[in-house]
Amino acid sequence: MDLTFLLETISEPWLLAFGGLVVGVLFGAFAQQSRFCLRAASLEFSRGTPNDRLPVWLLAFSAAVLVTQVLAAINEVQASEARQLASPQSLSGALLGGLMFGAGMVLARGCASRLLVLSATGNLRALLSGLVFAVIAQASLRGLFRPLREWLAGLWTTGDIGGNDLAAHLGLTSAMTIAFACLWLAAGLVFAWRARLKLWQAVAAVGAGLAIPLAWWFTSSTARQAFDPVQVEGVTFTGPSADTLMLLLSPPGNVLDFDIGLVPGVFLGSFLAALLTRELKLQGFEGGRSMARYLTGATLMGFGGMLAGGCAVGAGITGASIFAVTAWITLTAIWVSAGLTDRVLSGIETGRLQAAQ
Asked: Model confidence over 186-221: pLDDT tens digits?
């Protein structure tokens, strides 16, 4: 797509921010309507009780990977210029951060994107947890926790294995990666049929997934045509949440870019979708123990997401859609950790009930 007119009409930072806003609105609206949630999907899988959340995640994931790979095959997406593939990444950070993030999202009852979507519908638990997540992410990026994050991230990097491109390591062609994505899509359709997933929920799940290749395509197109260097990137929430927080706290020192538009866009999209479907509802904490659980989870996600180089969406879908090794490690670690954490919490709750009796 020719963006010359837009680039001549408005400045590049404003165009990037507007693009992030549009992508965010679409993702937020579709995620809210589909009930997209990696936590719920992973728990359905680990408990062996697949319902509607697992097929929603599979449809979103497969749509993101499939369309991204198709766009890359026709050179509409420059995946090789994305941060995940163009610069060294941390394998130890992907593993450890993924384990922390998986545990955190179970404690907080939602990953970073889910908390943002829920907060827009009036969920005060998600709003406070999301703010804590952003604060810890910022502290891990540039603040108090930065030395610890850098030390853990430096233990094992992609430089030790010759790069972060999984397709290159395995010798996969574009046709192979597209076929692989089609298998995931087929699995999503099968689970959707078994769960009797509503048509609109399935469409919304695919819509949420398509926001990822849309982001890749928009930033790739802008990078090709802009005068100044532009980072090719997709949808993620750890870094953008921290950047948005700092923009609110100290506006003069921050520059507009795609990430700055993304987070407000998701909030706006989710709010509008909930408003139109009459799903706005104020919800708060149920007690001190509940609050402590949520905030502990948000803290683990903030540090874990920054250590892993992405959240459940940023690494688990966006990074996986371009076949970054670290993204697949993070995604696997999140699923494993979420299942184990759920079992531990269930055991604790069972013991508490038995003691009460």
From this structure: 999 999 999 999 999 999 999 999 999 999 999 999
Residue whose C-alpha is closest to residue 27's, from 199, 200, 204, 189: 204
> Which residue has tokens 């797509």?
1
Tokens of 267: 């909030």
**Average pLDDT of the chain to the nearest whole number:** 93
Numbers of helices and strands, H then E, in the chain: 17, 0
How far from chain centre, in Å, is Cα 89? 17
What are the tokens at 163?
């790069």
For residues 329 and 118, the answer to whether their CB atoms sit within 8 Å is no
Distance in angstroms (rounded) separating the CA atoms of residues 289 and 292: 5
State how far the Cα of 127 lies from the Cα of 161, in Å rounded to an integer.
40
Q: Among 9-23, 154-168, 249-263, name the one with the lowest average pLDDT.
A: 249-263
HSE-CB for 281 with a 13 A CA cutoff: 4
Name every residue whose Cβ is closer than 8 Å to that of residue 106 and which is 6 or more positions away in sequence.
39, 43, 297, 337, 338, 341, 342, 345
* % helix, strand, coil for the chain, step of 5: 75, 0, 25
d(CA 340, CA 317): 21
Of 169, 331, 138, nearest in space to 246 by CA: 138
**DSSP string spanning 31-78?**
HHHHT--HHHHHHHHHHT---SHHHHHHHHHHHHHHHHHHHHHTTSS-
Would you list the DSSP string of 294-325?
Answer: HHHHHHHHHHHHHHHTS-TTIIIIIIHHTTBH
Separation between Cα atoms, residue 102 and residue 92, nearest integer Å: 15
pTM to 2 decimals? Answer: 0.94
